[in-house]
Amino acid sequence: MKEEQSDKEISLVLIEAFTQALNECKSNGLYPDLFSRKEFRTMALEALSFEEELEVKFEMGKYMGIIEGEEKGRKEGRKEERLSLAESMLINGADKEFVSKCTKLSIEEVEALQVD
Q: How far is residue 93's CA from residue 52's CA, in Å, rounded to a whole number?
């Protein structure tokens, strides 16, 4: 017969489970909306000590920060790609209004490109 696990052991298993769930969401391109719901957090964290709760919150915060950073990086990359395309179009003789329309950059952003 399996002996009962201590609260500390159970909490450590929960922390590991949260971490694995967050990593699984990330690897599958899913955002853990469930983890951001207050009811879920309250229910899930009730079984933890204060220190363990902080550890779980830290892991969740770290994960959410990674997601936000990745999204910001993707947006910046898309913007850089549009700027590069606009520069190429201008070098090849396209007018600024056409470049703005095609790249969805503002006229000011297109005009700010230094193309000789």
A: 62
